[in-house]
Specification:
The protein is 39% helix and 17% strand. By secondary structure, it is of the alpha/beta class.
């Protein structure tokens, strides 16, 4: 096992969140550790020239809510702003994060919030630039014979990888069912589609699946044990764009443009059903009607401003503290830099594309 993989294993062992967090109308002040993009006086949304043109990006992409990263590529948004982005698609967020830690990729899209927090205590700290989803929208679906918490005990529950949003959802679901993680067998399977396949085959008993797919689960004969989306206080931030602090410091303009491109794609995903569904149909290789249902279902899940509050990261931190108390030494304010998104507000980019400037 390589050093980056060992680091990833250590930092992802216990990620998930059990505490509710406060929401705020505007993002918290940005930390000063990472310089932002070069100053500009434009107010018409014009972006600066990239300081790095060729960018390698990793991303998990197993559900429509994660589509903005790829949509920006399919619609030529990265190219429009001067970037040549090569996207490597992974089966799980942990794999994408590992690729950044190893240097195989420069940035990750759709990554979990765990590594930007735990990495603050290492010599390769990560940095959240934007957040594509803040709330928990999963439900715990199970085989039809599992109808109660007692039925769940001793059964296999599928997640993507340790430390991901899916893992967080399982822990939160178990808490809601008054169970503990030791009461089930947590099994790493892969993304949303892989987890559904594992349940269909009978390989696992349960899995967290986004509630936008509730009808599909019901049609498959699966049973909803608990719906986490009903609790609007639950927050487990998933990164829109995240990278190493060293990359953001060296290439601030490119980092800014990546944030802008993803924000534009997210805005299209939320507001332009036909375009987004057409592109999703191409990517997922499904017909237009099914694609429109999938996109419509997630439009209320994803974060339109891609902003966040630093307290969102406490959701992850409190769980890590149970396994590694030293994680409480990590500064949640250092895990992300709001200044890139604030720059996009200041130069008029949010106004230009019609994105909201608050949570």
């Amino acid at each position: 096992m390589s050093a980056p993989q060992r680091l990833l294993s250590l930092t992802l062992i216990a990620s998930v969140a059990l505490a509710a967090c406060a929401a705020a109308a505007t993002p918290s002040p940005a930390p000063t550790a990472v310089p932002t993009a070069a100053a500009t006086t434009t107010t018409d949304g014009t972006l600066p020239a990239p300081d790095l043109v060729k960018v390698k990006m990793g991303t998990p992409i197993g559900e429509a809510s994660q589509f903005a990263v790829v949509l920006a590529d399919q619609l030529g948004i990265y190219k429009k702003y001067g970037l040549d982005v090569t996207i490597t698609k992974f089966n799980a967020g942990g794999d994408s994060t590992a690729s950044v830690l190893s240097g195989a990729n420069d940035v990750t899209g759709n990554g979990g919030s765990d590594w930007v927090l735990t990495s603050q205590l290492t010599d390769t700290p990560g940095l959240a630039i934007s957040v594509y989803k803040r709330l928990v929208f999963d439900g715990l679906f199970c085989q039809k014979d599992i109808k109660t918490a007692a039925d769940l005990k001793g059964k296999q529950v599928a997640i993507s990888t340790l430390g991901t949003t899916a893992h967080a959802s399982v822990i939160i679901a178990l808490k809601g069912l008054k169970l503990e993680e030791k009461d089930v067998i947590v099994t790493q399977v892969g993304n949303n589609a892989a987890r559904i396949t594992a349940m269909k085959s009978g390989a696992v008993a349960c899995a967290p699946v986004s509630m936008d797919q509730a009808k599909t689960m019901t049609d498959l004969g699966l049973n909803l044990l608990i719906d986490l989306s009903k609790d609007k206080t639950l927050s487990y931030p998933a990164m829109g764009i995240a990278t190493l602090k060293s990359f953001a410091k060296k290439y601030p303009n490119t980092t800014l443009i990546l944030a802008a491109a993803l924000l534009e794609a997210q805005t299209i995903l939320i507001n332009d059903l036909k375009t987004s569904a057409t592109e999703w149909a191409k990517f997922a290789q499904i017909d237009q009607a099914k694609a429109e249902i999938a996109i419509a279902a997630i439009q209320g899940q994803v974060n339109p401003s891609m902003m966040w509050v630093d307290e969102d990261f406490a959701f992850t931190q409190q769980t890590f503290a149970k396994i590694s108390p030293s994680v409480m030494m990590a500064d949640i304010h250092a895990a992300g830099d709001h200044s890139f998104l604030q720059k996009l507000v200041d130069i008029g980019f949010y106004k230009k594309i019609g994105a909201p400037t608050s949570l």
